[in-house]
Every structure is written in structure tokens, then in C-alpha cells.
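Attaching the record inline, Q. Sequence:
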Amino acid sequence: MKSKLIVPASEHPAADGSVLSITPESAGWTYVGFEAVKLEAGQLLSRETGDKEVCLVLLSGKASVKTAASSWSEIGGRMSVFEKIPPYSVYVPNGDRYEITALTEIELAICSAPGRGGHEARLIAPAQVGVELRGSGSMERLVHNILPEREPADSLLVVEVFTPEGNWSSYPPHKHDRDALPDESLLEETYYFRVQPEQGFAIQRVYTDDRSLDETLTVKDGQAVLVPKGYHPVSAPAGYEVYYLNVMAGPVRTWKFYNDPEHEWMLKK
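Structure, as predicted:
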């Protein structure tokens, strides 16, 4: 039976290049929106942000971007996410607009959440992206902090993660589904997956303490996963590298997670 937590991509892009779309309404939650867009060279995408702030992540390819008051020409430094160099991104506040002109084929992530008009549009260049190796041994993964909580935004948190073949990430299992600060923050989350080679897959489990939600998902290249609540570890099978882009948002813009007590012992080794 197909899981409601997996959002598949369309085989053919829509007229505006959209291949996958998640809205708060479609996900059944309040804060996070996500869209994957693929544009051909020369194609243009123009949108109003409305009441949402947006982080445009140029996953691959080169483009020029304009907002109501700013523009950035010929941005983009990688032609595949698996080059593992930080991406170019553009933050756009609510009440603004953006126009993207593809200079090559591009894959674009449009990350959105409620905005309050507190910040100006800006370029997030690769040099501004925090790069870290997180975990150790078979839990080691490469993390690019694109829009972390120390950088200005109203609601959005955006990060990308590279999990080597045979390794685990979002691990040990953790959750952030309670508005219980300072111990835990309530954050909805999407995972957008790319897999190399593309015929591969990732494994993700999403489960709660009471097991009212307990699903183990086989996720293919180009699919997304909804994490409305619960723990959500990811595994990359042998022979396949796994990439995912995370978008998080909630009532308070901070990432405070709670580890599954049954598995927290691994952090004390």
C-alpha cells in the first residue's frame, strides 16, 4: 500500500516547470511548503510570494534571479547536487516577488513558510553556507546549513545533507514535534531526496513513541517525504549515495530536538 508520507514527482514538468509540490493544505499541516522545479535553458519562472517567505535553492544549474528591489546575475556553481559544494540560494520575504531565468537546465527548490516582512531579499552565496561533518563512523554525513536559525528569516530553516553509501543520517533517531521549549521545538519537516546512481533508493522510518505512526519507507530519487511528527532516521543502502534537502518551520524558529531514549546510548559511546 502506498504511503501517504511519500510525495512522488511528476514524470513530466508542468508548464511552469513544477515536478513536485507540497503545500500546508496538501500535507495537512500549518507551516511548511516545498516545490521542486525543473527549467530548460531560457525558461522563465515568475511568482509573487504573497504571505510566505521563500528560500530559492539552486540545486543544480545556473540562473539569474530578480526580486522587486534586487537582482543577481549568473548564479549557480554546481551542475549536480552530488558535486557536494554548497549551493547558491536567494531569500525572498513575503509581499515580494521573484523572477528566475534559467541559463542552463536547472533544478530549483522553492522552500516556503509564513512570513512577517521582517527581512530584505538577499543572496545566500556558497561562502555563507555553514559546512560540517556530523556524526562519526557509519553515522557520519556532510551537512550544508543553507538557512540556519542564526541567519535572519521569519519561519524557515533549510539544510541539505549528503549520506554516504552504507551510512545513516538523521541518526540516532530524533524528533521535534512538541512545542516544549527549551527542551524541544515543534517543527514540521519535508525531505526531498536525490539518489546516485538514480535507480537506487533510500530507507526512512517515521515513528512515534506510542507507534500510532510507524512506517518504514522506500524512497526513490526525486521523491519527497512528509514528517508531520515522530522520529525520522534515514539509511543509504550500499552502492548508493543519498542526498536530501530539509525544510522546517513551526511556531518558533529554533531547532531543538529530542533523541529517542532507546537509541541515545550511541551518543555516549
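Residues 128 and 258 are 28 Å apart (CA to CA). The chain is about 0% helix and 50% strand.

More tomorrow.
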